[in-house]
Design goal:
- The protein folds into two domains: about 5-170, Sandwich (Jelly Rolls), CATH 2.60.120.1050; about 185-435, no CATH class.
- The protein is about 10% helix and about 45% strand.
- It has four helices and 30 strands.
- The strands form six sheets. Strands 1-2-5-10-7-8 form a six-stranded mixed beta sheet, with helices on one face.
Length: about 450
């Protein structure tokens, strides 16, 4: 344990208050360097992004959580010298993926530390093996606050040392998720699988109100959020709304407007109210809150007391996982109040409970359903052209073993597109949910 005490406290002091910078290099952001302090020197460089290659599978074992992942070398520094007690820093863009930093000490004893700077230096992880051992650190976007866009690799010379530094990022790949029995993969992308299964089921027809039996094809998208795939809201333009009752009207568009090759897949999304034509353009309000890319699009009109539909569920999408809960303030559509209730992530969608969240007997109709479930780092999107709420819920909960499920719009709004093919679609809608495969 030769350096733990030094690295825990003294390094911060060195980084913040005891550094002398090479005049030709970029200084640390917001660092209050005081003149006449000559103890250490930091040289700041950008990681070389020109040397790119894919590692052999044998080198993947360092990431125990993703043993089948591939690593791509994004930068390297060879035969670099660091003086005793000196620090060399390398700035790297922080992407929505995992990283591995490997420091091979050729001679001497050097260590590697990961920091970020949001006005002050914050320690993330380190490896401090002695002598000429190879130090390796694995971390991901989830180890940093959402606002952080870059991190620093700090090489510390415990004694005068020569080292080789390599930086890798995890390459997006098809999830290794084992599909349940009877489900077949019909399309794949980097970080996403579309699986289908033919099912025969009986439910009440929404028009005749008589039970009918149909054989239909259900689809479940398995999205591995740790593999670089992302899920986002896609929507049209909106009109302004007051903050005290923040429920803007959004442009209602045909599903084909959203279903483009920009996205791996698109499904219908949020519930919405009656369509209103304003200056020959159709608009509608979202029923429940949506937060996208850090901005609250709407606090919805369907808060407690206004629609009688309870309980609601909140889908929170992070960079490497998603959660579903009922913990948000749905007593109001005041913009500030709802923003505070959706502060966990930049992307949040509020829907309904998959079994209880629907008025009257609509839950028993066999109609198009769009449900989303979560488990670990996976997000599951169910699209079915004919199912009751309980039947749809049972697919995700019973077959895919999801931890929780949330229901979004369905019926005449139901729609599914993936990889250039629209499987079914209905009326024009103001909001969709898209999957973007990893890079």
């Amino acid at each position: 344990m030769k350096k733990i005490k030094f690295l825990g406290f003294a390094l911060v002091a060195l980084l913040i208050g005891a550094l002398v910078f090479n005049a030709c290099e970029k200084p640390l952001d917001n660092n209050p360097v005081v003149a006449n302090q000559q103890k250490e020197q930091v040289v700041l460089k950008n990681v070389n992004l020109t040397n790119v290659q894919t590692l052999e599978a044998a080198n993947v074992e360092i990431n125990k959580k993703s043993a089948n992942a591939e690593w791509t070398l994004i930068g390297s520094v060879g035969n670099t010298n660091v003086a005793s007690k000196a620090l060399i820093g390398y700035e790297v863009p922080l992407e929505n993926t995992s990283f591995k930093v490997s420091l091979a000490t050729v001679s001497g004893d050097a260590d590697v530390l990961i920091y970020y700077n949001n006005g002050s230096w914050v320690y993330v992880k380190s490896s401090e093996l002695g002598g000429t051992a190879t130090d390796e650190v694995v971390f991901s976007k989830s180890d940093f606050p959402a606002s952080v866009t870059k991190f620093w690799i700090i090489v510390h010379g415990y004694v005068a040392s020569t080292f080789n530094l390599k930086v890798y990022k995890q390459s997006a790949s098809t999830p290794t998720y084992a599909l349940p029995s009877g489900w077949t993969s019909v399309a794949t992308g980097k970080g996403v699988i579309v699986a289908s299964k033919s099912n025969k089921r009986t439910a009440k027809d929404r028009t005749s109100l008589v039970n009918v039996t149909k054989t239909v094809t259900d689809y479940v998208q398995v999205v591995d959020l740790k593999s670089g795939a992302t899920v986002k809201s896609v929507y049209g333009s909106s009109l302004t709304a007051t903050a005290s009752a923040f429920s803007p009207k959004f442009k209602v568009q045909s599903f084909s407007t959203y279903a483009t090759s920009t996205y791996f897949s698109v499904v219908n999304g949020q519930f919405f109210g009656w369509t209103e034509t304003i200056n020959k353009v159709a608009y509608a309000q979202y029923a429940f809150p949506i937060k996208s890319a850090g901005s609250l699009l709407s606090a919805g009109y369907g808060f407690s007391g206004s629609d009688g539909i309870q309980p609601k569920r909140k889908l929170v999408i992070y960079s490497d996982k998603a959660t579903i809960s009922e913990s948000y303030d749905y007593t109001t559509n005041n913009k500030t109040t709802v923003e505070n209730s959706l502060s966990e992530s930049d992307n949040v969608l509020v829907g309904l409970h998959p079994l209880d969240g629907n008025p009257s007997s609509a839950k028993y109709y066999g109609v198009e359903r769009t449900f989303i479930g979560v488990k670990d780092n996976y997000l599951f999107i169910l699209s079915t052209p004919f199912a009751t709420q309980e039947q749809a819920w049972a697919i995700l909960n019973g077959e895919f073993k999801t931890e929780r499920v949330v229901m979004f719009d369905g019926g005449g709004s139901g729609a599914l597109y993936y990889k250039g093919v629209t499987k079914y679609s209905g009326r024009a809608i103001p909001h969709t949910i898209a999957v973007v495969e990893g890079k």
